[in-house]
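To whoever picks this up:

The nightly regression suite flagged Circularly permuted type 2 ATP-grasp protein as changed. Nothing in the input moved, so I suspect the structure step. Input below, exactly as stored in the fixture:
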Amino acid sequence: MKSDTMNNKHLFSSYDLLPNTWDEMYSIDSDIRSQYDIINEYLRSTSPEILFKKEELSKQLFMNQGVTFTVYNNNEGIEKIFPFDIVPRILTAFEWEKIDKGIKQRIKALNLFIKDIYHDQFIINDGIIPAELIYSCPNFLRQMKGVKVPHDIYVHIAGVDLIRNNDGEFYVLEDNLRTPSGVSYMLENREISKRIFPGVLSKNQIRPVANYPNLLYNKLKELSDQNDPNIVLLTPGIYNSAYYEHTTLARLMGIELVEGSDLVVKDHFVFMKTTNGLKRVDVIYRRVDDEFLDPLEFNASSTLGVAGIMAAYRKGNVNIVNAPGTGIADDKAIYIYVPDMIKYYLEEDPILKNIETYQLGKPDEYDHVAKHIKDMVIKKTDGSGGYGMLMGHEASDEEIKDYLENVRKNPDNFIAQPILRLSTAPCCIDGKLSPRCIDLRPFALSGKDGIDITPGGLTRVALKKGSLVVNSSQGGGSKDTWVIQ
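Regenerated output under the current build:
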């Protein structure tokens, strides 16, 4: 990488572009992309000592705010400060416009799919999606069959994971529709950026993200016919890995944070226990998975949910966000069919592409994956957090053999995708800029007046050199995401 023109040569001295990889800051000719001029100019004119101080300040701010996540190892939860890289990821207005339109199109189709699956099932009857794929999916809830939901919206909150491949195009990695997390880190990252880059954001008209809690609150409020609905956030409790986010969102929206033991169902209505007696609950933003939501209908041993809450929901006496059963649409086996859904329900071509995906339950596709295993990543269809995957290029022959033996026991539970070249972005590592792989999770909010997407989202970073795994539980961190006005 050429750095002769840089004043801060030390900072740029080890920025070596990865082969066959799109870099967010540098073009293939080693020229700075125009959107990075603002941060490049700042970094060039800032001494390494000051940048180091800014890094330390960001860590201190995260520590003081208690911005943590929990990693579980050997059944023990370990609290960790969420790693943050001070160099933002920057998107142009043109890039963001395509992302915005593509996600709105996708969420619209997925929502229509969920409604269809729990009602008329036209998409099955017309042969677009196999019936056995739906009924064998663990996230398909028969308890939701025929249930009418307010405004026909099932997916109120979504976090769609995108990656940029080496062709410069954005691809959808997965759709997070059940209890998507990470928005609190997006909000905190922006607050930190304002502190360590004073005046830079406003001067360059970077689109704001701070309105998300207010937007979410209004989307929740419009679900109730009450003038002043009682809205609560249902958390699994302090041992959940995203508990920091639960407390943050409840505080920013000005609503009560509750656990299952704080709620009770009487006469098919949900009430919150207070010092003044029972208070009716109208809307529940739940961060508890379906399986634990109601011990009378799902996991009988669950203490995280509320007995009878599903009956109250089906009668329309309480609203639950996201609707139970939305997981049918973000199962990795269903993901393959999302482009078909878009064409079927909307009669449009997908704006954002899927990643080529193989169903290992199909013998010919399994054979293809097995032959090209070193170029593949295999995932469980209901997996998350980067766990339970096989990265073919990193695995030993013995690990591959053992994994494929496990796959053959229940191949329908696995999919495979080619290992992609995630784009890289500059990270400040040991006082120097160094490229690291990233993805992007924009957050979409659906309401009766349409879909709103916060401009930017959470950019996750694989902080380990050469790693493609961005999950915080697997050694990843995050960046602020700037969208130029």
